[in-house]
Amino acid sequence: MAMTDMTSCPVHQSFDPLAEPYLADPYPDLTAVREEVPAFYAPSIDMWVITRYDDIESAFKDPGTFSAAVGQRPVFPLSDEARAIIAGGFHASPVMSDCDPPKHTRIRRHNLKGFSARRVSVLEPKVWAKATELVDDIRPGRVDLVPALTYPLPAYMIFTFIGFPDEDMDMLKSWCGNRIAFSWGRPSPEEQREIATNMVHYWRYCEEFVAKRAADPVDDFTSDLIRIHREDPEAISLEEITNVAYGLSFAGHETTTNFTGNAIRQLLSHREQWDALCADRTLVPAAVEETLRYDSSIIAWRRITTRPVTVGGVEIPADAKILLLLGAANRDPKYFSAPEDYDIMRGDVRAHLAFGKGIHYCIGAALARMEARIALDLLAQRAPGMRLVEDQELTFPANVSFRGPRHLLVDWP
Length: 413
Ligand code: HEM
What we know:
This protein is an alpha+beta fold. 50% of the residues lie in helices and 9% in strands. The chain has one domain (3-412): CATH 1.10.630.10.
């Protein structure tokens, strides 16, 4: 890749995470930039990009220098119209992924209680039941596994986890649309209008839902937070609980849809590994882990510097928007042998950074792993003979962070 000014601040004119070839397969570029330089400025997105495992891990572990505050902010400026729609009815404020200590510490602590092993484990039979119901509906022939399984399963599970009623699911899903593009992509003004309008609907729904649970708590995650609030209103406010419900319904959904799609794709593309997994389903957790390393659904994450900092000899100023290339770190040969090989039997997989590290480590990691594991296990039982449709052209949502196939066609036996 073309690089200029190799001294204090290398600049990559050609690095563009929204360009078609990168969206189709970012890994050649991720490998090239990691080998070339530990950090550089990318004019295409006005961000400083960090490429190597050690530096990315250090950034995760230094929230004082690498603030999370920029986590959800649109990468590109919004249209006036979209800003007006947001200002009129969307009042989200930072609570977790885009929040720094001390507020982050307080809110995350209470969320961790809600994400207790008990609450996640009681979901397991529900995930099995929902996945089974979805797979039961698949008929032999050509099937798109995204609408058939990988989209509805995590949607249903995260909505159920939060406590949203079943009858609202279709409405909620209709508001999800292309919301990744809003903060991480470059949507057109028309798309911005539509996404912003849906975000307002969604936000109002969350406000009303939390008010309802506050009046009458039941046995769900939101009610767990309400009980904490009732005991000590300073611990977490109703507005903060609304933000958590809103944020989780996003964080727990497309991430896992995309991830499960990536896992199915990789396994079916490495047929001998799929066959081995079908013959011995105890290999499923290893396949989940290797996909997290090799083809995760979040290939880059954001921070903003609070002070000037030097990364691998490259000077980065204060207030610099940062892109941490998780996809490059997860194939860094310093930590993974034969990193470009997909190998569910590898021994060094656990070092991956797919869920981040440190104070913002993904709170839904156990749930995401469980959903993917159950989906793969069920597919291996029901359709060991399924095949990826060879000549399909996979497309991926245009954004800097989230990656997974929009459609995934298989021939179902
Ligand atoms: C395979 C699927 C998933 C992947 C790859 C993933 C990855 C990540 C990453 C990279 C972060 C940022 C860590 C950081 O900033 O240091 C994160 C944070 C987060 N994730 Fe996930 N995630 C997944 C699924 C989920 C699910 C299912 C949920 C909810 C049920 C969830 C909820 C969250 C939340 C709330 C945060 C912010 C935590 C904090 O800031 O303290 N994620 N995730």
